Amino acid sequence: MEKAFNINEGSAAGQAAAFAERLIRAYSRHYNVFRASETGEDMAKPVPGELAARCDLHMSESKYIMTEKHVIWQTDCHEYCYIFQTEHLTKELYEKFLEYAERDGMSRIHPDRNHKCSAITVMVAADTADREAVKALRKCRIHKSFAFSFHGWMDVRTALAVLSAGEVASNFGGHENAAYLKKLIARADKTVTAGESRK
Length: 199
Hints:
The protein is 31% helix and 35% strand. Helix 2 packs parallel to helix 3 (131-139). Helix 2 (91-108) links the parallel strand 3 and strand 4 (115-129). The chain has helices at residues 16-27, 91-108, 131-139, 175-197, and strands at 32-35, 51-64, 71-89, 115-129, 143-145, 153-162, 167-170. The protein is α/β, with parallel strands linked by helices.
C-alpha cells in the first residue's frame, strides 16, 4: 500500500531552493559537483531551469599482478545524480526532469568490458507536489543492460522531498536516497527549533 501524506499543505514555503543547496553541499563531500549555471555547455540541451546541479561519482576496483600495468580485472561503477528544485511538482514537470536526466545521463555512460553498473538518479526538492507526480515517481522502473549485461547495466533511481509535509518518496532503487533526504529534513527541523529556542 502506498503511504499517504499531506503533500499540498503545510507551514513550509519557498524552501526548495535552500534545501537543494544543502543537498548539493552534502553531496560535494564525495561527489564531483557541476552546477547547472556554471556547466551548461557540458550538458544536454535544453537544460531545465529547475536543475540545480549534477553530481558525479566514479568508483573503480581492480586486481593486478606486480604492477598496475598488468591488470587481471577491473570493474567501474558510476552515478550521475541530478538535483532539481521547484515550488510545486506536477506529473508533467516530474516527467520533464526524468526525461532530461535519462537523456543526459545515458550520454555519459560508455559501457565496455570493465563497466559494471551506472545509476542515473533524479532527486527533487519541492515545497509541494501533486499526488499524481508522487505516484509516477514511485512507479518509475527503468533498467537497461548492455551486451546482455556483459558490459554491465544501468538503473534509474528517483527520490523526492516534499518540504511542506516533511515527507519523502522514492522508487524501489531510490530508497537509500530517500532515507538521506529524510535525514536532511530532520537536521533542518532541528536547526530551526534550536534557533527559535534561543530567541
